[in-house]
Design a protein that fits this description.
Radius of gyration: 25 Å
Largest sheet: 8 strands, mixed
Number of helices: 3
Strand content: 35-45%
Length: about 190
């Protein structure tokens, strides 16, 4: 009898009490560096082994960085990358290399080791907050070819923008990868 009364009381009170638990989770817009893919037919494919892409620890985040000229670093609010920048650059490199008829392989290589290898490091990647804001990507590379030996360098691209910071970052990333591919293609 007591259990029936308790159940009845719970049912009656549950109709009277309405708990509204609301959590305000800000919406996040997610972005990728690669915005389109074109398929290219190649008669002969050259091959490069991508040994890896490393980055300074501050760029191992999905947040989009914004740097002031005084060194202050913030994140763009409500906007994040879909993956870590080094992973997105790897995918972008593979897709852009395919357009140049360059196949990309990754370690472990197994029995066949590519005659050309590439190692990349992200040195800077983000928005530079200034009177004229800019998107920036700086990478260093080590390209090793059996014919030409070890070639090292740094590529830097900046693009001014007025409104769309994400588009500017996508554009400088694509331009930097194209510049890198021109080094690889020229150094066969």
């Amino acid at each position: 009898m007591k259990t029936i009364g308790a159940v009845f009381l719970v049912l009656v009170l549950s109709g009277c009490v309405s708990l509204k638990i609301k959590s305000d989770i800000p919406s996040l817009d997610m972005y990728d560096l690669n915005t389109q893919f074109e398929n290219t037919q190649c008669a002969k494919v050259d091959e490069v082994g991508l040994l890896g892409i490393s980055s300074v620890e501050i760029y191992d985040t999905k947040s989009i960085l914004e740097k002031s000229l005084d060194g202050k670093i913030q994140y763009l609010e409500g906007k994040v990358w879909v993956d870590f920048p080094k992973n997105m650059l790897k995918v972008l490199f593979v897709l852009e290399a395919q357009k140049e008829c360059i196949g990309v392989s990754f370690p472990p290589f197994g029995a066949y080791v590519p005659k050309k290898t590439l190692r990349l490091s992200i040195l800077s990647f983000g928005i530079i907050k200034a009177d004229e804001p800019k998107a920036e990507l700086v990478i260093s590379y080590e390209f090793d070819s059996a014919k030409k030996g070890l070639i090292k360098g740094v590529l830097m691209n900046k693009e001014s923008f007025k409104e769309n910071a994400i588009k500017a970052l996508q554009d400088v990333s694509k331009k930097t990868i194209k510049d890198l591919l021109s080094v690889i293609v020229d150094k066969k």
